[in-house]
Amino acid sequence: MSENVKRRYEAPRRAERAAATRSAVLAAARELFVARGYPKTAVSDIAALAGVSVDTVYSSVGRKPVLLRELVETSLSGQDRAVPAAERDYVVRVRAAPTAAEKIDLYAEAITSIHRRLAPVFLALRDAAVSDRDCAALWREIAERRARNMLDFAADLRATGDLRDDLTDRQVADVVWSTNAVEYWVLLVHERGWTPEQFREWLTDSWTRTLLA
Length: 213
Description:
Distance between the termini: 70 Å
CATH class of the largest domain: Mainly Alpha
C-alpha cells in the first residue's frame, strides 16, 4: 500500500475516533454537570468518566466553559455541533409554512423536542451563572439570542396576515419568548407533571388564541 493510499484510508478512521471521543467527553460532561452542578465538576472528573486524559478533554472539546457551551448548542441544534438558528431544520419548515397557525404548530413541536434535551443542561447553566463569570456571559448571550430570534419569528407570523393588529411584533416576540423558556417547561412538565405532548398542545393553543386574529 502506498503512503498516499494509506493516509487516505487512515483519515476517515481518525475522524471517526475523534468524533467518538468528542461525544464521550460531552456525554460525561452532561452527566456530571446535571448531577453535581457545574462548579463542583472538575475537568479531571469528566476525563475519568469519559475514559480519556485531561489533555484529551481539552483537545477534543475545550475548557469547562467551552464544554458547557457545546452542550447548550448541541442541545439546541439536536446535532453533534452548533447550527445557526436559520439553518436548523425546524426553522426552515416553519418559514416555509403558509399560515401562522401552521408555523405556530411546527414551532411548538420543535420547542418540545428541544426542551427534552436542553432543560437539564440549561438549568445547570442558570445555576452556574450565579457565581461563574463565563457562565453568566453565556446565559446572557443565549437569552439575547432567543429574544432576537423571537422577533424574527414574530415578523414571519406577521407576514402571513394572520396576527392580531393590536399587537406589535415586540409584544408577540415577548409572549413567545417567555412561554417557550426552559423555566416554563420545568414548571409544567417537571413540577406539575404535564406530559411533553400536553405541553406542546398547550403552547399551540395558547399562542393561537393569544396572537392570531
